[in-house]
Amino acid sequence: KQWYQRRVRADRRGRCQTVAVNEVGLLIGKMSSSYPFDGYVGDRSITNKKILRNVFREGDSWFNTGDLFKEDEFRNMYFMDRIGDTFRWKGENVATTEVAQAIFFI
């Protein structure tokens, strides 16, 4: 059984759908007793933002990695990008807060 899914789009009922092979999708991880997510230390609201609920069926929970991947026909996974407060620059993940802080000190 897989711990991850290639999902990103919602159907008419608001449930997520599997993306096609070689299509970019959000990487999410199923949360269960076998694959728990205890959350981040300190701020529960940050933890709650990372948990997706009722994704495929009522009552399920999935961890939002914030990473966009694609999977080829051989099931090889390729990192494509991050969503949220980061962007790719010269192959590195850069947080927008890092840029703001650097500009502040100029």
Write the layout of secondary structure elements.
Elements: E1 4-10, E2 16-18, E3 25-30, H1 44-50, E4 51-53, E5 61-71, E6 77-82, E7 86-89, E8 92-95, H2 96-104
Antiparallel strand pairs: 1-2, 1-3, 3-5, 4-5, 5-6, 7-8
The H/E string reads EEEHEEEEEH
Major sheet description = 6 strands, antiparallel
Beta content: 35-45%
| Poorly predicted regions | none
Mean pLDDT: 80
Which secondary-structure class do the elements indicate? alpha+beta
Estimated helix fraction = 10-25%
Please, could you describe this protein's structure?
- There is one protein chain.
- The chain has 106 residues and is an alpha+beta fold.
- It is 15% helix and 42% strand.
- It has helices at 44-50, 96-104, and strands spanning 4-10, 16-18, 25-30, 51-53, 61-71, 77-82, 86-89, 92-95.
